[in-house]
Structures are given as C-alpha cells and as structure tokens.
Amino acid sequence: MKQAGRWLLLAAPLALIPQVAHAQKKKPPNTGAAPAAAAASPPPVSADADADQPAAAGAPAASPDSAPPPPPGDTSAGAPAGAGGVDICQITPDAPQCQVAKEVNMATEAQKPIHAEIYAVQQQYVLKAQRLEIMPYFAVTMNDQFVSHNAPGLALNYYVTQVLAVGVNGNWYDGLNADSDFNFQNRRAARIAVPLNIYQFSGDLNFTYVPMYGKFAGFGDFIFHYDAYIDGGLGVIRTKPEPVIDPDNRKFDWNTLVNFDVGIGLRIFFTRWLAAVVEVRDLMYFDKIEAITIAPGASTLPATNPQSPLNPATWYDPNTHFTNDVQLQVGLSFFLPTSFEYRLPK
Amino acid sequence: MKRRFVSAILASLCAVGLLASSRVAHAQEIQLTGPLKGAPAVRHLRLYRQGRLELAPSVSFTLLDEYRRTILAGGQLNYNLLDWLAIGVWGAAGVVSTTTNLADEINTFSPRDPLTADNINHSASPSGNTPGTNPSFNDQTAKISYVVAPQLTFTPFRGKLAIFNKIFVDTDFYIAGGVGFVGLQERGDCGATGQLACSDPKSFALTSTTKIAPTFGVGLKFYPAGFWSLGVEYRALPFAWNRSGFDERGSGPGNNFPDQKISSDDETFQFNQLVTISLGFYFPFQPKLTD
In this structure, which long-range contacts are made by residues B184-188, counting pairs with CB atoms below 8 Å and at least 24 apart in sequence? Predict the structure, then answer.
C-alpha cells in the first residue's frame, strides 16, 4: 500500500490540470502594424474563422490597437469589457455609441450612393468551386414492385465552378436484388408472369448543376444551409433476366447496356465540408427481357435448333423495352479540402 | 510483488476516476453591450401564418400504384394558431382514375378459365373464354373515391431560397399529421354462406367502403408574395385494402393461400403515397411583422 500513496500523488496534479473547454471567440491577432496595402486589397478570409468575427487583416476593427478611442466623456462606449463583456466598439466601430460626438447630417447621408443590389444570402456558407465531393450513399428502388434493386453507391464530383461539377458514380446491386411477394401473388392469382430483370452494377459520368441554395432557421434557434441540384449523364448498367417463364431451361448471362440518368437532389450542410444528401435519380435504358413464349420443340433437340427451348436465341423477347429505374438515394457528402477561403470578408 | 501490483491498480483507478469526473465543458456566452444586446435574431420577420386562415386548392397524384392511378382534386383549410402550428383539414376527391400497364396486361393476357374464375371477371361461364366478350379486369380494381383528413401542421423550419441567384423566395418546411378517412370502391365480399360465389360474374362488382388510417406528410411552401404561396407535399396514407379484387389469402399456413372467398383476409397492407401541389391563399392578406 506504500506504493499506492505515490500513485495518488501522481494522480492529484493530473486531476488539477484545467480541463475546461471554453467556447470563446478567438482573440484577433495583433495587427497594429498592418500595412496599408493589405487594407486596400483584403486578403482571402478563412471560412474556418467565425463568421461573426471581423477579418484579421484589412479590417481595422479586428485589431485592438486600431480600434477607435472612446469619445471624450463617453464612459459606455469602448469601455473595457468587464465581467465577461465584450467591447462593442472593437467589433463594430460604426456602432452609434462609438461615434456619439459625431453629428449626423441626415441630408448628407441621404445623398450617399446606395448599392441597390443586395444578395439574399450575402456570403454562401459553402464554397464548392475547385473542391472534390465524395458521396457514399444507399439507393432504394422506388418504382419496381416486382423486384427491388437496392444498392450501395459512391459518387465523386469535382466542382469546376461554384455551381457546376463533373463526376462519376457507381452502384453495386448484385446480391441485393429481391423478388417481391407481390410478384408471386400476382402470378398465382392471374396466371400471368411478368418478366423480371436483376442488376449487377451501374456506372455513370455525370454533370451536376446547383441552381438553388438557401438557409432555414430551425425552431427559431439554429440555422442550417442547403442547396438543391440537378444532375445527368450517361454510363453503363449490367442486367440480366431472372428466368420466370422457363426457369428450367434458361440461364441468362449479364448484358452490358447503355443508360442515361437524370436526378434531382437536396444537400443539407452540417459543416462546411459535411452534408446529408437526398436524391431521386432515374436510370433510363433499353432492357432485354425474357421472352414470355417458349420455343415449341422438345428440350431434347440440340440447343442450336431454332425450335429448341434450350436455344439461347429463343430466350429473349425480340424487342428491347425502355425501362426507368427510379431510385431514392440517401447519403453523406464530404468536401475536400475541408476548408476554403472567401475572397472578401463578410 | 502481488501486493504492489494491486496497490498500483487501485491507485490508477482512483486517478482515472478523478480525471473523468472533472471533464466539464463550459460554453461562455459573449455579453454584448451594444445595440444588439437583447435584440431578436430576425427583425421585421414576416409572420406568414400566425393568426391567418389558409385556403389552398390542391391536386394530388398517387404514386407507385399497382393496378390503378388516381388524381385527386381538393384542398386544405388551415387556421394557424401560431406561426409554427396550424390546425385544419385536407380533403380531396378522386377525379381521374387510370389503369397501370400491369392491369392492362392482366386484362389482355390473363386466361379466363376455372383456375382464375375467382380472381378475374369472365363471361357468363367461368370456364368459357370468349375473346371480346369478357368484362374488363380494370373494372374490378379498387379506386380511391375521396379522402378527408383532419390534421395538425407543424412548421419547424423557415428560411429563404435563392434560384439562379436571381429569384429569392421565402420558404417553409412543414410536417403534417392526422387521421385520414378514405372512401374506397372495392370488390365486395363473396364466397361465404349467404353470399354470391366468387366465380359469379356479379361478385366482381365494386362496393363502397371507408377505411380509417393515419396520414402524415412533409412539404415545402414558397411565398412569392405575402398573400399566396405555392406548396409541394409528399404524403403517406398507409392502410390495407384489396386493390386487385383477387382471392389471395384466407386458408392454409399463415392464411397465405386462397380460400375461394373474398373477405378482409385478402386485403394487403399498402404504404399509399401521394404528391400534392397546392396554391395557398391567406386571410387577412397582409402578414404581420415582428418588431
């Protein structure tokens, strides 16, 4: 037990080390000697800085050294922040109480030019230009009641501009195709079989356009940002019929088909590099389906015989069928690099 | 040696306990002393809903239908008790009803014979199959006649949307929930004692019935002006019904086999879904503004 005392002595200072995280705005760096050139041409502003924080350079208010002195006789404006307070004149030197001594001539003020164009969202929460988006997701079939084609997927998009991206995405379906109970019930009741196709994978080259963005206030308490996009492209999808009409004789191989896809999605940002994504996408292609008639010959005929049900040439419907595979995709979106810089301060 | 080891373990546990007990994060609030002190997050906020009556004609489209699609015309009447809470009713009547490709395929290709006599309407003889004389399968598929749903609407999110950096509209996201009373035209019961045999062509006639089901939806409302809005809503209306008029269940293990009767056993659960587009008008016309 003598050794225990030493261990406790070691633990005591560790416990006394301050482990309290104060969520306090960063002190602006001392830029008292900020060159005039920097003020004339404001440098990019890091998005990691607090949006409400004045710019570190080029914004005089950010520097305690450059903050205007309190007006004579005014004890409230520019007063040192006591008891946890913050000097409003250091944050916004233009605040009225920081300029009490200054006479405001309303006629003169009214003559000043006005910037009539004010953006509804002054500074977009996330800049996407020249960033890579990595988007893992899971796709669920929305429009096929007979067999579902659920799939995990991955999309990679590079944003050439703030609103335009080029990218690829791929889904892997094999092993997750599922014949529905509805399909069986329908076959049994109506004595009619519906040809089924299953998928292996699909991959597309896409262009994404982001025409809409905005923000929501939730419960009047917090704000989150979102944008909406449309995308489209072309690629390949591999499908094959699941034998329903003559399962004893028909064994299909995968067919590689060209597909077109269009989608519309919504991205809700948690941070400037992480978002949740919901998208509805339609993969359109001409599918090869199983023939609903069986070759009339006996199965003992050689497979090369046109009358043989073993002849693969008789297995497919002679016409291709335009197919829409509408998917609901839910996933996450990661933007790299994780930080970016605004051209101008807020 | 063993004693020292036990002592060391006990001391380590004490240290870990002390360290763990002191991990508290304090978020310090900035005390503003300027004109923003005590100011609301948004000044002159337009209260589009609070204290206003909303009348919104709407058109609804059913989704993912198996045999029959329905377009419903109707509307919503809401009174907004608060800016985030409204009480009201959504009602709509089926005005257009069309069949799906599957229904058409069944009508065209399904054999009319004794094996399907209970499930697909046929000519006078259950075993007869006279092309061109059989009643349409489409006539036996169920239809939605109307829906009436008293509901509460909760609007947790409000914001704005920029389109092409040119068009800016105030936008709300809402969740609605209530109880739906759904009027249906569904194949009537048959096959039980005192009822028509299910192979009788007359047994395929539709009868009226009402289902009670939960309903909930999510939607967006866009406010191009203070007195009207454009809404898009997704709504679910889950309940069990016999959409095809087939005898699918009622006997055998788990009641999963046909029993030559049409009854409630043949109703299957369906997560009925609709998309609704609405045009809302608000009374009084001018929304109030906050300070």
Answer: B184/B142, B184/B143, B184/B144, B184/B145, B184/B208, B184/B209, B184/B210, B184/B211, B184/B241, B185/B142, B185/B143, B185/B145, B186/B142, B186/B241, B186/B242, B186/B245, B187/B140, B187/B142, B187/B242, B187/B245, B187/B262, B188/B262
Give the model's confidence band at B45: pLDDT under 50 very low, under 70 low, under 90 confident, else very high: confident
Residue A5's pLDDT is 58
Interface of B with A in 38-67 (CB under 8 A): 41-42, 64, 66
Q: What is the pLDDT of residue A68?
A: 41
Contact criterion met (CB below 8 Å) for B116 and B106: no
* Least trusted range by pLDDT, from A5-9, A75-79, B29-33: A75-79
Sequence-separated (6 or more) residues with CB below 8 Å from residue A287: A197, A239, A257, A320, A321, A322, A323
Residue A50: pLDDT over 60: no
Confidence of residue B232 (pLDDT cuts 50, 70, 90): very high
What does A143-180 look like in DSSP terms, one character per residue?
S-SSEEE-EEEEEEEEESSSSEEEEEEEEE-TT-EEE-
Nearest-Cα residue of chain A relative to residue B168: A120
| Spatial contact of A282 and A276, defined as CB atoms under 8 Å apart | no
Reported residue count of chain B is 291
Contact (CB<8Å) B42/A217 = yes
More confidently predicted of A222 and B151:
B151
Cα dihedral: A241, A245, A250, A254 (round 10) = 0
Structure tokens at A12: 């005591």
Distance (Å) from the C-alpha of residue A192 to the closest C-alpha of chain B? 6
Is the pLDDT higher at B131 or at B101?
A: B101
Q: Does A280 touch chain B (CB under 8 A)?
A: no
The residue among A35, A54, A32 whose CA lies nearest residue A45 is A54
For chain A, say whether B32 makes contact (Cβ under 8 Å): yes
Residues of chain A contacting B36 with CB distance shorter than 8 Å: 88
